[in-house]
Amino acid sequence: MDLQSSSFIHSAIEIVLSNLDDSDFNGNELASALSLSREQTHRKLKKSTSLSTGRFIRYIRLLKAYEFLLKTDYTGSEISYKVGFENPSYFNKCFKDDIGISPGEIKKMEDNFSPKGKDIYEFYLHPEIHELLKKAIPLPWDSDSSPKKNYQSLIWITLLIIVPFGIYFFQKEDSSKFHLPQNSRIAVIPFKNETGNPQLNSIGEIASSWIATQLDNVEGVKTVPAFTVDEYLSSLGVFRNDQDNRPTFSELVDARNLLTGNYYLSNNEIYFDVNLIDGITLESIYHFPINKGHRDSVMSIIEEIRLDVLGLLVNLEDVKIGKLKPPSYDAYSAYLKGLAEMKDGLYPSKAHNYFREATTLEPNFVMAQIFMSWFVDYSKVDSIMEKVEKIPTMTQYEKALYLEQSNMFQRRYKEALQVCLDVLDDYQQDYYFNIMAGHKYKSLFMPEKALEVLAQVQDPNVNEMGLIWHYFKTRNKAESLLMLHRFDECVEYLKSIPEDLQNSAIPELWISTYVAMGKGRDSVDSLLYTYRDQSFYPAYLVHAALEYQLKSNDSSSKYFANKAIEFLKEIPNEGVGDYDLIDAYFLTGDLESAESLINDRLKLQPQLKLELEIYLTYVRAKRGSFDQIENLLDQFEDKSELKWRRHEYPYHIAYHKARILALAGFKKEAISQLAIAKEEGQLRHYWDYERDIFLVSLFDDPDFLKLVQVES
């Protein structure tokens, strides 16, 4: 370790020690105190200590706890709070996992125990930082722990007798084990279908998903999440020293080893041939015995493979105890089909049907239940989340997904973001949590942070699951650049997106960028002409009208809104493009037609009653007197939140009130309601706050500008 790295580590340790009792102190706070980004901190710690930021902080907390346990009479619960653990049960679990024994056993063992072989032991004795740690946290691990010197000669004689036999038995015992490099991960690649029947392709994906999910964090084994593996699969063909300097798959996902396999079918018997290979050299490390069985028992065979892999890596007795019952083959197939359908858009109905099928067949299928919550009516989400919380087999990674989604649905966006960051502290390459952290940073008025975390995500290759995540990345990266007025960068980014990764967000982002850069109506009209044959064309016209309205360019806004009205009037299907048509009437100032259309739709689409009524309230607020406004506000007194348009999360009622007041010209009152909504966790969705056409009357107010100011 060079002098600069040593100084960095010493500073990091001192900062953690000075914040030891602060349970909220995490990787973000450490990075801020070091005047670095979270990603820079993570990289420097990983390089110097092989530890993630989260593990670095946790190890220091646990080492101090060890000292307290040895030298004080504090209870385990008291110590857990002193070293920054909010939950004593979680403290006990971390202590046992990382030290090797429970906190209550420390006093009994005293100096006769050290966690040799554990990563935390190697960390404490790291030659570059041991002296600093020893001064702050003196522990007896580097001294002779024998209480009496006169036993030394006896020990040496005993060792001379025992060691040769010990070496023999150790070698014999260890010949069936493979030791993973410290803090490394295994990527489980979807097994290759060699049956000749393409209908059995899902077996390979199921094997990858199940083994990766259920191996992770068992006895210290770490795997690459299935989402991340799927995003970078095509990089498997890239080798070291690639002439185009492309990163290898192993480098992209930070996996030292890969688990690969093929499967064959003969007379209804299915055979699995599995290898553990070196992620760098791609050479075989261990070839597992063939696993076989009747094709109807394929899930049991896949579980046996998981146990074989686990048996290679950890204690065999633990493996026997840890046998699991996987979901059925049909349920897992339906789940994977649901994920595949999500490539077609944000909320396709087929995906909903597949997740419903999976959860009907297997109510305890955690991942299927979590994604099912994306598609059901908001009123049903709580019951799904309650079911998931009670599933006893939930893994640590599944729990992180559950917590992220549960917090989002309860409008605890900061807490949801922290769940993402905690996962990324441990595994920076996680595709799903990088994407979701970027979304949350942007939505919490922190576009710089959003760009920082999204920079960790390589552009995905086209595959069966990629486009929904690409949709999230595209929107949040481009919108963050627009929030920061970095228009040229946004143009270059949109130009860089390959044709085969285009999605419905991209034309809208081009329109937003053109208008933000000051391009005139003709330029935007020419851009829109290239999309005239797409089904979203009228929505793009309304999008252009909205953008010009936000820039107070009333004539251009009305031009595109009127084009949308003419186009949508020709659509025979009632209900198609309704919100776009209501928007268009609103933007042209034809409030009578907007109100008439909403009333028509209230009769035809009663399932949208609340959403349509809230829009009707906005229209009436724009047209009404003060007395009418009071009546409009009164109707919401018993509500805490209301759905708006087709968005998956309800809006805080104070935000709806702010819109009504702003439309009626009551600026001060509107801004007060907005402040309440923001304090209560109302997200900054793309069309909210300073991009909300219902709030345009507030745009030049200093109090409003202060409220919507982005954070660094």
From TrEMBL:
GO terms for molecular function: DNA-binding transcription factor activity; sequence-specific DNA binding. InterPro entries: Homeodomain-like_sf, HTH_AraC, TPR-like_helical_dom_sf. PROSITE patterns: HTH_ARAC_FAMILY_2. Gene3D superfamilies: Homeodomain-like, Tetratricopeptide repeat domain. The chain crosses the membrane at residues 153-170. Residues 10-109 form the HTH araC/xylS-type domain. It holds the Pfam family HTH_18. PANTHER family: ARAC-FAMILY TRANSCRIPTIONAL REGULATOR (PTHR43280), HTH-TYPE TRANSCRIPTIONAL REGULATOR EXSA (PTHR43280:SF2). This is AraC-type DNA-binding protein. It comes from Algoriphagus zhangzhouensis.
